[in-house]
Specification:
The chain has 19 helices and twelve strands. Strands 5, 6, 7, 8, 9, 10, 11 and 12 form an eight-stranded mixed β-sheet that branches. The protein has a four-stranded antiparallel β-sheet with strand order 2-3-1-4. The longest helix has 17 residues, at about 85-105. It has helices at about 1-10, 15-30, 35-45, 50-65, 70-85, 85-105, 115-120, 125-135, 135-145, 165-175, 195, 200-205, 210-220, 240-245, 260, 305-310, 315-330, 355-360, 385, and strands spanning about 155, 180, 185-190, 205-210, 230, 250-255, 270-275, 285-290, 335-345, 365-370, 380, 390-400. Helix 8 (about 125-135) crosses helix 9. It is α/β, with parallel strands linked by helices.
Amino acid sequence: MDEAVNTCFSARKVPEAIKGLVYQIASGVVRQKIYLDWVLEKLIDREAKGDTRHLLLISLYQIAFMKKAHYHVVKEAVEFAKKQKGAKVANFVNAVLRRFVREREQMTYPEDPVCRLSISHSFPEWIVERWRNRFGGKETERLLTLLNEPPSFAVRINLERISKEDVIRELKAQGIKPSPGKLLDSALRVDKLGPVLVSRLFEEKLVSIQDETSQLVTSAAEPGKDDLVLDACAGLGTKTGQLMESSAGPVIVAMDNDIRRLRLIPKKANVVAGDALRVPFRKGLFDIIVADAPCSSLGIIRKHPEIKCRRKKEDVIRFGNYQLDLLKSLWDNLRQGGRMVYSVCSFEPEETVEVLTRFGKEREIILERPFSFGANEGYYLSLPQETGMDGFFIARFRKA
């Protein structure tokens, strides 16, 4: 979604002053789409299509979830509709929005608990049912509520080049409110990203945009001096960049199957276009392999609400099978005694502990506790409703 919005901003030259508002409304409509679609079904007998439907969704979202006075929203929507579509459509939009203002408090959700939570929190029923079965009703409602809140953002400080205190001082001078990360000294939470992206700190690569759970993945690798490290699913190179900041002096190879993404990776990295399922390296080559694997991404819905619309029930199983195949493929390229770090931005069992268990039955691995915190031997699991961070899974193990 971020890419789509940025493309729109570039194509239409949206003024900086309103970019934040545009993004807030666009992401909010996507986040609350199931609820908004249900509202429209209640309000109109015939289906609204195309731009008219989009205008109604945008307006309903502002009335229901933003502080803007409803009469201002209705007035703006009607004027826009009249200008773009004519008086007939404008009258229709006016009638629908005014009816919502009158009747919204009387709208009742279905009695079925799964259906009720699905509509009230705008999550697909299959996700609600999955989490209710796992966490129970109250915990699921708490999780859904958290994932619908505006996302928090974090930066990673390059502590090899600048102190945390200096970064905090510069950010505050730009009107940003930083707060310490929960687990890592390199992590800072910020209340807004825009000023960070145009700051000296970002331009000189003294800070990078990276969630704290993502930072944990590379921290678990702990490369030593002259280690040869493979970032097997490098993506945009965020973790590659973090590995390159290590004072230990490891040699980093960044691999991905998307050439466009590889072009964004820091130039000092050894970049290779390749598929982790068909690794183009000799066996036993690497001391450390970091496998931040493709997954359902259900752990980062708070930042990417479009995931709710894209994912299907069967995707969780499909990704789990893919992740197991990926680990088996990469395993041969790890030297004896070498270390592998496996991570996914998901907290679903089929993509996390079950993958680890299945892999351990097929390969001789030695689990290592990746961090001093966390209760689980051999892996760290972040449940959003418990940690307040993204849903994430990180496992570390050696080749026996």
